[in-house]
Design goal:
3 copies of one chain form a homotrimer.
Chain A (H helix, E strand, L loop, with lengths): L2 E6 L4 H16 L3 E6 L24 H10 L5 H10 L3 E5 H6 L13 E3 L1 H7 L4 E4 L1
Parallel strand pairs in A: 1-2, 1-5, 2-3, 3-4
Helix pairs in contact in A: 1-3
């Protein structure tokens, strides 16, 4: 049984999808999973509609990819993270980034388990595999 | 002897180079090395010419860097990965990303050892150092 | 006591800040910390003024963030790395990237402890947590 931590720094849909896929796959294999949402990822973890957003460098590929995702009936990154949570994964919001982005407690999406500092995440994932996404 | 996994998510030449350099250096030091090619990196692992492509934010530095790479006789990322493979490194293509990008088995570059899912890669690299590039 | 390595590949201020925050937090908790500065991060570790630079995709958020950073009296990434160093963190400059960027020894910022190759960093951080930023 492995232990997978992820520092989710990026806010674009492609990288949120990577985090969702890895979280779900790892949790399904009985890994402990903890995601630390920080910086550009913070707005995607506030309440409200989750819009798709891709880096401008890959805009030309987005219509094709969006159609493929539909055809393959791929779950959204949000639903994949919810599925991972149902298997024990935890999602933390970075307290400093929340303050920086001026996100209030009431704005936080219910998918978030807790708001913690980087020090807490580092401590809780000591010796784990940690990805910076 | 260490064990280095890499999730190669980005498709730009700068990050492919980073993966090539790390894979080659780690393999040369008798580390086990496994690279999981996914998302934007997938097109670079299909057959055909490998063109250079850099993020638009750094375009102004590209002519200078391309000249320096020539002057220093730096190997291409592809040749560095081939060298790493000759020392035991394995390169896997993500099955989900291949499907998403509509890459068929026949399109896959021979540098790829196998097409596997994220779950397989997670399992094979349990407890390893894993970088998300 | 954990051991945190970071391969600092990106040169934008947001990611330098992430590295600074993680380095400082980890060092303050008695973790061993080693940062390997490579590719686009190299110019930020040469002598001279450190200018802010953000990815063009997030330019619209920069004025707001810059103001928040001021309001919250956040330390700069440079000062956070200096603080981490005072608690034992080490900062290495990648020899290959320095050569590629044509950075001479005399140009290197005094915050850098040494100029080393990727192989040395891989060896010194064997079995550590390593983030690719």
């Amino acid at each position: 049984m492995g232990k997978l931590g992820m520092i989710l720094f990026s806010g674009t849909t492609d990288r949120l999808m990577a985090a969702g896929i890895l979280a779900q796959a790892a949790a399904a294999m009985d890994n402990e999973v903890k995601v630390f949402v920080t910086f550009w990822a913070v707005p995607s973890f506030t309440k409200g509609e989750k819009k798709m957003s891709f880096p401008s460098d890959v805009q030309s590929m987005v219509p094709f990819l969006a159609q493929r995702m539909k055809d393959l009936k791929m779950a959204s990154w949000y639903d994949m993270l919810k599925e991972a949570k149902s298997m024990g994964a935890k999602i933390y919001l970075c307290s400093l980034a929340s303050e920086l982005m001026n996100v209030k407690k009431d704005d936080v999406d219910p998918i978030v388990d807790d708001i913690v500092g980087a020090a807490t995440f580092i401590q809780e994932t000591e010796g784990w595999q940690v990805l910076f996404i």
